[in-house]
C-alpha cells in the first residue's frame, strides 16, 4: 500500500453544490486557487459526482449538473469542471488535486433531478416499513432529501464503478469516495438484501424484518433483534467489498493515485450508515457488534481517511461541560476515537465542518490546531464558508505556521 507523508496535510474541500454557481466564472476559479496556494493548502478535493448523482464532467453514463431543472447550473452547459479546474492547476506543484465521487446517492426528493434514481427505481433503497428517518445520526448536516440506491444491486455496482473509471482518466492525484454507505438504519430491506443476508448467515430469517430490529411505536426507538449484530457485519462487508472494487479500479488505472474515503467520526453509531471504517485489527466491543465484526473493517483498502469531527466543542473538556453524551462529541475526542479505530493502519485526517464555528473565529482556529496536533492534518469543509465568513486570513495564519517556524 502506498502511503504518502500526510503529517502536514491541509485539505480543502470544494463542494460543487455550494460553490458551482460562483465558480462558473473562471476568474473565481483562479481566485480560489490563489487563496489556496497562499493559505498553505496541500490538497484540494473537487466534486466529480455530486450528492444527488449528477456529474460535473461530461459522463457517458450519468446526467450532467447543467441538466438541473431550476437552471441553477445552466452556465455549466457543455462545460467540464474537472478539466477546467485541472488546467488551471497544472503549473502548481505544491497542491495535489483529488476528485470526489458521491457514490450511492442518486437523486433528490425535492424534484426529479439527480442521478439514476428516477430512471432506475428498482435500484432505490427499500426502507423498513417505509419508515424514513429525517434525522442525522450525529453532527453531520442533514441529507434526508437524498435518494440512495442499494449498494449490493449488481447494476448499481457496475454503474458506480464506471463513473469512477471515467474520473480516473483525468490528470488527478487521487480519488475520494463519499456517501459510500447506506442512507440510515432503515435501509435496505429489499428482497435482494434479504436473500443475500440469508445466504451470508446460512439460514432463513424466521421473522423478517423483526429479527433484525423493531421500532418502538411510541418512542420510534430502534430495538435490536437477535440477528442485528450479523446484519451490521453483513452490511459493512457489502460496503467494504465495493470499496475494494473501487480501489482496484483506481490502482489498476494508476497505482500512484491516492484513494481515500470520507466518513463520520461517530463510530459507535455508524451501524446506521452500515460502514465499518476501522482497521481489520480493531476489535470493537459494542452492543451491536458481533465477535467477528472486524472482518468488515475497510481501512486497509485506503491510502488515508478523513473523519468528520463535526462538533462545535473542540476539547473533551468542553464536551463534558456541555453534557455531551460522550467525549467523542468534540473535535479532540472524535480524533482520538478515529485514531483508536484506525489502529495505526493508515493516516487519519481530522475534518471540520466550518459552519459549526460561524461567528466564533477563535474556536475555528482552536479546532484547526487540534486536528493538526492530534491527527495527520486537517480537512476543511467547505470552501463556501471561507468566502461567506471572510476567513481566508485565518487559514493564512494557522496553516502556514509550520512554514513560518
TrEMBL record:
<keyword id="KW-0732">Signal</keyword>
<dbReference type="Pfam" id="PF02638">
    <property type="entry name" value="GHL10"/>
</dbReference>
<dbReference type="InterPro" id="IPR017853">
    <property type="entry name" value="GH"/>
</dbReference>
<feature type="domain" description="DUF4985">
    <location>
        <begin position="287"/>
        <end position="395"/>
    </location>
</feature>
<protein>
    <recommendedName>
        <fullName>Glycosyl hydrolase-like 10 domain-containing protein</fullName>
    </recommendedName>
</protein>
<feature type="domain" description="Glycosyl hydrolase-like 10">
    <location>
        <begin position="47"/>
        <end position="259"/>
    </location>
</feature>
<dbReference type="InterPro" id="IPR052177">
    <property type="entry name" value="Divisome_Glycosyl_Hydrolase"/>
</dbReference>
<dbReference type="InterPro" id="IPR003790">
    <property type="entry name" value="GHL10"/>
</dbReference>
<dbReference type="Pfam" id="PF16373">
    <property type="entry name" value="DUF4985"/>
</dbReference>
<dbReference type="InterPro" id="IPR032280">
    <property type="entry name" value="DUF4985"/>
</dbReference>
Amino acid at each position: 500500500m502506498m502511503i504518502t507523508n500526510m503529517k502536514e496535510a491541509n485539505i480543502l474541500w470544494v463542494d460543487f453544490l455550494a460553490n458551482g454557481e460562483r465558480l462558473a466564472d473562471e476568474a473565481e476559479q483562479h481566485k480560489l486557487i490563489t487563496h489556496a496556494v497562499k493559505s498553505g493548502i496541500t490538497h484540494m478535493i473537487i466534486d466529480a459526482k455530486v450528492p444527488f448523482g449528477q456529474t460535473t464532467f461530461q459522463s457517458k453514463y450519468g446526467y450532467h449538473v447543467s441538466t438541473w431543472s431550476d437552471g441553477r447550473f445552466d452556465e455549466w452547459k457543455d462545460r467540464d469542471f474537472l478539466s477546467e479546474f485541472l488546467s488551471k492547476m497544472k503549473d502548481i506543484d505544491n497542491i495535489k488535486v483529488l476528485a470526489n465521487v458521491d457514490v450511492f446517492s442518486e437523486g433528490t426528493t425535492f424534484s426529479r433531478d439527480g442521478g439514476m434514481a428516477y430512471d432506475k427505481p428498482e435500484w432505490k433503497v427499500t426502507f423498513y416499513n417505509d419508515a424514513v428517518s429525517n434525522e442525522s445520526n450525529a453532527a453531520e448536516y442533514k441529507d434526508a432529501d437524498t435518494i440512495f440506491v442499494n449498494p449490493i444491486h449488481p447494476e448499481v455496482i457496475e454503474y458506480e464503478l464506471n463513473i469512477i473509471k471515467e474520473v480516473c482518466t483525468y490528470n488527478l492525484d487521487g480519488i475520494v469516495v463519499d456517501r459510500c454507505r447506506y442512507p440510515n438504519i432503515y435501509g435496505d430491506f429489499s428482497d435482494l438484501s434479504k436473500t443475500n443476508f440469508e445466504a451470508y448467515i446460512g439460514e432463513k430469517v424466521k421473522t423478517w424484518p423483526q429479527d433484525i430490529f423493531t421500532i418502538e411505536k411510541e418512542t420510534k426507538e430502534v430495538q435490536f433483534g437477535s440477528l442485528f449484530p450479523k446484519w451490521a457485519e453483513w452490511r459493512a462487508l457489502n460496503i467494504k467489498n465495493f470499496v475494494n472494487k473501487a480501489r482496484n479500479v483506481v490502482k489498476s488505472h494508476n497505482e500512484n493515485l491516492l484513494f481515500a474515503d470520507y466518513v463520520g467520526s461517530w463510530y459507535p453509531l455508524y451501524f446506521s450508515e452500515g460502514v465499518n471504517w476501522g482497521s481489520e485489527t480493531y476489535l470493537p466491543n459494542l452492543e451491536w457488534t458481533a465477535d467477528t465484526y472486524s472482518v468488515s473493517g475497510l481501512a486497509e483498502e485506503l491510502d488515508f481517511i478523513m473523519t468528520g469531527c463535526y462538533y462545535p466543542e473542540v476539547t473533551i473538556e468542553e464536551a463534558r461541560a456541555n453534557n455531551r453524551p460522550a467525549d467523542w462529541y468534540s473535535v479532540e475526542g472524535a480524533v482520538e476515537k478515529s485514531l483508536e479505530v484506525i489502529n495505526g493502519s493508515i493516516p487519519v485526517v481530522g475534518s471540520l465542518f466550518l459552519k459549526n464555528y460561524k461567528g466564533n473565529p477563535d474556536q475555528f482556529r482552536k479546532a484547526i490546531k487540534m486536528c493538526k496536533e492530534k491527527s495527520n492534518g486537517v480537512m476543511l469543509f467547505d470552501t463556501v464558508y471561507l468566502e461567506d465568513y471572510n476567513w481566508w486570513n485565518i487559514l493564512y495564519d494557522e496553516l502556514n505556521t509550520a512554514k513560518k517556524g
